[in-house]
Design a protein that fits this description.
single chain, 403 residues, alpha+beta, Butyryl-Coa Dehydrogenase, subunit A, domain 1, Butyryl-CoA Dehydrogenase, subunit A, domain 2, Butyryl-CoA Dehydrogenase, subunit A, domain 3, three-stranded mixed β-sheet, 13% strand
Length: 403
């Protein structure tokens, strides 16, 4: 299959559908939900009602052999608003965690539960980061102990920065099952958020993505059935045995998975950058200073031209990486990390420049570009910081295990 930016009829329909929802439903509500700092359940419900949110559409998009449908959806929704967009798309993190590690039975049982139903939509949360273990996953402290007498796992620890924390119905939890093995002694569990012993901390007051809930989750000797272990105990025991023998345990496969999911995050950043650019472009055409529109000044028009170039370049990297992932081709140069790194940088830069073009009014909450800038900054941080992306790329292009 040859890589192409030309959209199929189905992809074009998806793009138009998502864009219309973003324009007619998300954008008019963006300022309100940013100010309220609450989960926009009415918008999630509307998305579920029309089929734009739920297990069925997400499963369908993931089946696109070109890998383009999911980035297309993300770009359009985040063009509408990143905070609301994350409230809609954040469940995908938990769903991806189940799909990547779970058995077929676990996938079909739990992924639909992450999304709920059309009448009662739900959201899921992915619990990986900790106060002392973000980029350093080997420093994870959350423990899962197996109780053979009851065939239960007992989970204890604290998870940080959980998207949908406090509002999720289903949680995917990464925990250490063998501390001596470090990151190779970790496993993932799927847990109902209402299980006794699980407590969500206060919703964090964030710089951006304020419509999307983020909170710490505490696990106090939480007992879950043996079936909650994603992949099953036999698979885990085999993995641990290989690790104890010094063999590889799938760590390289995990990194390959990260490379394939990072373009989705990059597509979100592209949507934010594009929204800021379009707004600044229209403003520059209409804003008159010294008897002419400010776009007639090269300082403004050239800046807008540079923004267009950077956004298109970011989208190309995202789409290429998504295609490589969908077609199961090796990302020998860390193309997934390249796409996320470039798109995140572009979103932060383009939204800041949009504020500059608008001048003083761009710095106020009466105009959306300041919100876009606040939302953009996280794309230099989460899902692998800017510096972690640089490290992954440097290792890939050099062939060296750089520190």
């Amino acid at each position: 299959m040859t890589f192409s930016m030309e959209l199929t009829e189905e992809q074009r329909e998806l793009q138009n559908w998502a864009h219309a929802f973003a324009e007619e439903v998300i954008r008019p509500a963006a300022h309100e939900w940013d100010e309220r700092e609450e989960t926009p359940w009415p918008i999630i419900q509307e998305a579920a009602k029309i089929g734009l949110y739920g297990y069925e559409i997400m499963a369908t998009l993931r089946q696109d052999a070109t890998g383009q449908s999911y980035p297309i959806l993300c770009e359009e929704l985040f063009w509408g608003d990143a905070g609301i967009g994350m409230s809609i798309m954040g469940t995908g993190l938990a769903a991806a965690g189940i799909a990547s590690a779970g058995t077929t039975e676990q996938i079909f049982e739990w992924v639909p539960r992450c999304y709920g139903t059309e009448a009662e939509p739900a959201v899921g949360g992915f619990c990986s980061s900790e106060p002392e273990a973000g980029s350093d996953v080997g420093n994870m402290r959350t423990r899962a102990r197996y109780d053979e007498a009851t065939d239960e796992w007992v989970i204890s620890g604290q998870k940080a920065w959980v998207t949908n924390g406090g509002v999720a119905s289903v949680l995917v939890v990464q925990a250490v099952v063998d501390p001596e093995l470090g990151s190779r002694g970790q496993a993932a569990f799927v847990v109902e958020a209402g299980t006794p012993g699980i407590v969500a901390g206060n919703r964090l007051k964030k710089h951006g993505l304020r419509a999307s809930a983020t909170a710490d989750i505490f696990f106090d000797d939480v007992r879950v059935p043996g079936s909650a272990l994603l992949g099953g105990k036999d698979t885990l025991d085999e993995k641990l045995a290989r690790a104890r023998e010094g063999e590889r345990t799938g760590g390289q496969a995990a990194m390959a998975t990260f490379e394939r999911t990072r373009p989705t995050v990059g597509a979100m950043a592209v949507g934010i950058a594009r929204a800021a650019h379009e707004y600044a472009l229209e403003y520059a055409k209409e804003r008159v200073v010294f008897d002419r529109p400010i776009i007639e000044n090269q300082a403004i028009s050239f800046l807008l031209a540079d923004m267009a170039v950077e956004i298109d370049a970011s989208r190309l990297l995202v789409r290429r990486a998504a295609w490589l992932g969908a077609t199961r081709q090796p990302m020998a140069r860390a193309e997934g990390s390249m796409s996320k790194l470039k798109a995140g940088r572009t979103a932060v830069w383009a939204t800041e420049r949009a504020i500059q073009i608008l001048g003083g009014v761009g710095y106020t909450r009466e105009y959306p570009v300041e919100r876009m800038h606040r939302d953009a900054k996280i794309y230099d941080i989460f899902e692998g910081t800017e510096q972690i992306q640089q490290l992954v790329i440097a290792r890939a292009i050099s062939g060296l295990r750089l520190p």
